[in-house]
Write a structure and sequence with these properties.
The complex is a heterodimer of chains A (328) and B (343).
Chain A lengths: L7 E12 L2 E13 L4 E5 L6 H8 L8 E9 L2 E2 L5 H10 L1 E4 L3 H4 L6 H12 L4 H14 L5 H4 L9 H13 L5 E5 L7 H18 L2 E5 L3 H7 L2 E6 L2 E7 H6 L4 H8 L39 H5 L5 E2 L4 E2 L12
Parallel strand pairs in A: 3-8, 3-9, 6-7, 7-8
Antiparallel strand pairs in A: 1-2, 1-4, 4-5, 9-10, 10-12, 11-12
Chain B lengths: L7 E11 L4 H7 L5 E12 L4 E5 L6 H8 L7 E6 L2 E2 L7 H6 E4 L13 H11 L6 H14 L16 H13 L5 E5 L7 H18 L2 E6 L2 H7 L2 E6 L2 E7 H6 L4 H9 L38 H5 L5 E3 L2 E3 L2 H5 L9 H6 L1
Parallel strand pairs in B: 3-8, 3-9, 6-7, 7-8
Antiparallel strand pairs in B: 1-2, 1-4, 4-5, 9-10, 10-12, 11-12
Helix pairs in contact in B: 4-5, 4-6, 5-6, 6-7
């Protein structure tokens, strides 16, 4: 995994929102990479910057948000400084996107067949007849019954779960090498969720597609991801193999987050909770952003901001794992 | 437990909605009226101080039950009794309304954005005339805010100044302000992050113990439900599939749908075991399948399931609406992995 050249590389990404009251830093010094065929899960509370990271990668940051520093490389080529037209060609062809709400992703005025064939004829060297044939194949592949008939249906004629399958087919049909999936199963019921996750996983494995999976659902991450990045207040708090982060987190925040998940296999009198709330972007504490809530806080945490450092099984942005002894 | 009269009773409760198209369109298309049976004959009761949860997927009717329970909908058939008195027959008296409150899913939509928090929390106190002076009202609001883990100073702020978790605390303070005995919570933590969810669930449990509250808890999340419930009802397409004491439901789920739901939950322990997702989707409640509504997705379905609708029958300490369970054919469906692992 580590010896394969990364497909996606994000280096020291910083996203800012200029406002009347000063500049808000939504993402700060975010770095990670995804290898071909790898699934990177990105978790964290709302406002931690998970969706923002995905939006920055596909070049759809909402103005006035902008990339202030750092770079994003796809296959070794920078994509963060491309013009709108150039980026538009990369989206769809190189990077597919799946969003939370399938109804807003699909155009209600076109049949799903039209949307699929349009995507394919735009990005692949094929004629419309071939595109239609492949569109039916894709619909079958994502598990839509009677695909040859349903292809001429409009999005509203599908149920929520079926619609999300169409969105997945749409994201995959131009055979992108990277998929950015932002909460792809959150709007779905558990039984449908399981079907969609199984589908995404198989397709990613079979086609060797890399995936960045943004979600707040730790169960989905545990089932799907190879590695996980935990975000807090616009930075990566911890990143590492899924089993290590979910079961033996090193960063006190990731540990607290995992502990607060209600267990399914037993009843506990009181759930573990992290007191307080994640700070707003306008009031991020000095030093480590987590220090006011951290049970293991010590003097250094309030003064200096930790970068990701080696924490054995994972990399964690936490002074507990500083190799040199702090002076004083 | 069985001796004390229940705080809340639902008997053969139904709520149907007319979803027909306008008359002229119906005549042109030559079609009849269409009825959505959101809730179709369910019965349960909740003893005082206990929590009953209803779980199920979207469209199963659980939120409609919540609204029926507090009188936001009137039942099409059946009855809702609160502390021995019928709610459906006439408009609930002010005293009954004071004693029951509701907490909604979305703390962004359920608080008036133009009111200060103290005004939001004080409204039920004023509406029911629970205090006589302004000073008493202020003291009560401060006490309620403290009780839910906020500061009395937060009363001067507006809802937008709070995070989702804090807003849900405000909703809880508002619900508690009329000294209710019965709280209906419709997905109270679904819009919250998992770390905040733990805070709110802990708070609700604490308040229940301290104030002796009775809860009707609506959720789609089985893990959450396991933490808070004494009894659990599993709903499917407007009907109860299974109603059982919480621990026995998780030790031995009987209805095939309950088993399928448990099997569909992602495995956090990453044991690498295979999960078998339930095939298919929840059918439309406007045109529910014949017989048992779950039969098109059920691995145990046979001819009788297609023809005859199963009634709730006792099975051990549970009530189950399933022909396969009644006939003892349910062993053919394996227990969900979480049950096997626990055994």
């Amino acid at each position: 995994m580590s010896n394969a050249a990364p497909l996606l590389e994000v280096r020291n990404l910083r996203v800012e929102f200029p406002t009347r009251r000063g500049t808000l830093v939504a993402l700060d010094d975010v770095s990670f990479s995804i290898a071909p065929g790898e699934v990177l899960g990105v978790v964290g509370e709302s406002g931690a910057g998970k969706s923002m990271t995905g939006a920055a990668i596909i070049g759809l940051l909402e103005p006035p948000g902008r990339i202030a520093r750092g770079e994003i490389l796809l296959n070794g080529k920078r994509i963060d400084n491309l013009r709108y037209e150039q980026m538009r060609r990369i989206r769809g062809k190189e990077i597919g996107a799946i969003f939370q709400d399938p109804l807003t992703t699909l155009n209600p005025l076109y049949t799903v067949g039209q949307q699929l064939t349009e995507t394919m004829t735009t990005h692949l060297p094929i004629n419309p007849a071939e595109a239609r044939r492949r569109a039916i194949e894709w619909l079958e592949l994502v598990g839509i019954p009677a695909a040859a008939q349903r292809i001429d249906s409009y999005p509203h004629e599908f149920s929520g779960g079926m619609r999300q399958r169409v969105v997945i087919a749409l994201a995959l049909c131009a055979e992108p090498r990277l998929i950015v999936a932002d909460e792809p199963t959150t709007a779905l019921d558990v039984s449908i969720q399981a079907q969609v996750i199984a589908l995404l996983k198989t397709l990613a494995r079979e086609k060797g597609t890399a995936m960045m999976l943004v979600t707040h659902d730790m169960g989905v991450i545990a089932e799907t991801a190879d590695r996980v990045a935990v975000m807090y207040a616009g930075r990566i708090a911890e990143i590492g193999p899924v089993r290590e982060v979910v079961k033996h987190a090193n960063h006190p925040y990731s540990a607290g987050l995992m502990a607060s998940i209600p267990p399914l296999d037993r009843r506990v009198e009181r759930l573990a909770q992290i007191d307080g709330a994640m700070p707003r972007l306008s009031a991020i504490p000095r030093g480590c952003a987590y220090n006011p809530r951290c049970p293991k806080v010590f003097s250094r945490c309030a003064d200096e901001r930790p970068d990701l450092m080696d924490a054995g099984t994972t990399r964690a942005a936490c002074w507990l794992y500083a190799s040199e002894v702090p002076h004083g | 437990m069985a001796d004390a009269p229940p705080m809340f009773e639902a008997r053969d409760l139904s709520r149907h909605f007319d979803v027909s198209r306008p008359l002229l369109q119906r005549m042109v298309a030559r079609e009849g009226r269409r009825t959505l049976r959101a809730v179709d004959g369910i019965s349960f009761d909740i003893p005082k101080g206990r929590t009953l949860s209803l779980v199920g997927e979207s469209g199963c009717g659980k939120s409609t039950v919540a609204r029926l329970a507090v009188g936001l909908y009137t039942p099409t058939a059946g009855s809702v009794r609160f502390d021995g008195r019928d709610l459906g027959a006439a408009r609930a008296s002010a005293d009954q309304r004071r004693r029951m409150q509701m907490i909604f899913q979305d703390p962004y939509a359920s608080l008036n954005p133009r009111w200060r928090v103290k005004h939001i929390v004080a409204e039920p106190i004023r509406a029911f005339g629970l205090v006589t002076t302004k000073a008493q009202e202020e003291a009560r609001v401060a006490e309620l805010l403290t009780q839910v883990g906020l500061s009395p100073l937060d009363g001067d702020k507006f809802p937008h100044e709070f995070s989702g978790g804090q807003r849900q605390r405000i909703s809880i303070a508002r619900a508690l302000s009329s000294n209710p005995e019965f709280l209906v919570c419709d997905e109270p933590t679904s819009a919250l992050d998992v770390s905040v969810q733990a805070q709110i669930l802990n708070l609700m449990k604490e308040l229940q113990q301290r104030l002796g509250l009775t809860f009707l808890f609506i959720s789609h999340n089985l893990a959450v439900v396991r933490q808070v419930s004494d009894r659990i009802g599993v709903m499917y397409l407007g009907r109860l599939a299974e109603l059982a004491p919480a621990e026995s439901l998780f030790r031995r789920p009987r209805h095939p749908y309950t088993r399928a739901l448990m099997e569909a939950i992602p495995d956090l322990d990453m044991t690498g075991r295979e999960r078998i997702p339930v095939g298919g989707e929840v059918p439309s409640p406007i045109t529910p399948p014949s017989g048992c509504a779950f039969h098109p997705r059920c691995p145990l379905a046979n001819d009788r399931c297609k023809r005859e609708r199963p009634e709730m029958k006792p099975a051990g300490d549970a009530m189950v609406a399933c022909h396969a369970v009644e006939e003892g054919r349910d062993d053919a469906m394996p227990m969900p992995a979480i049950v096997r692992d626990a055994a």
